[in-house]
Amino acid sequence: MQLNTTVKRLAGLALALCMTMQAGATEVAGIKFDESIQVAGTELKLNGAGIRYKAIFKVYAAGLYLKEKKTTVPEVLASQGPRRVTIVMLRDLSNEEFGRGFMTGIQQNTDKAEKSKMTMQFIRFGELFASVPELKKGDVMTNDWIPGVGTVVALNGKKMGDPYPDLAFYNALLRIWLGESPVDRSLKKAMLAEEDTRGR
């Protein structure tokens, strides 16, 4: 009798532990995104995460982190404090393919006036991809906005180049996924927490 009670208690503890662990991360295509992270000394919350598909192939999983959860694009673009987009590669991709996807997303979602103001930053951003021959499955890229510093891009924890100073540049990056012509509409919905991606 006492043994049964002990087993039940242990099972209950194990279940509670599993539930606690699940509450601490969102899983997308086998990739776990922490519910909260620290960027520049500020706690950010996972706004939403999803998968970037190209045709039927899973290219990468991406998660958007903000100080407070937002469900509309204008709210995200106007949000205060640090922000982060974390990208985890789900397959190998050449720098040309990955870079082309980024630059096409910017072209399709940024008006001419804005692009002309940030021409040099966009050129430098394009050159950044040339410095990485290939992105491998499991590689992690972070794109941070840090007030007073700028946009900081890192690959597997290693900073890539100097910061990009304009907030407009970071918002142009965000519109790759959240603009009127996003690279993947289902990913846009997921990053805005419009659909549940847990367990996908």
UniProtKB/TrEMBL annotation:
Q: Does the keyword Signal apply?
A: yes
Task: Specify the Chalcone isomerase domain's residue ranges.
Answer: 25-192
Q: Which Gene3D superfamilies match?
A: 3.50.70.10
**GO molecular function ontology, one term from the record:** intramolecular lyase activity
Q: Which Pfam families match?
A: Chalcone_3
| UniProt keyword terms in alphabetical order | Isomerase, Signal
Signal peptide positions are 1-25
Say yes or no: keyword Signal present.
yes
Q: Which PANTHER family match?
A: FATTY-ACID-BINDING PROTEIN 3, CHLOROPLASTIC
- The identity of this protein, by name, is Chalcone isomerase-like protein
Q: What is the lineage of its organism?
A: Bacteria, Pseudomonadati, Pseudomonadota, Betaproteobacteria, Burkholderiales
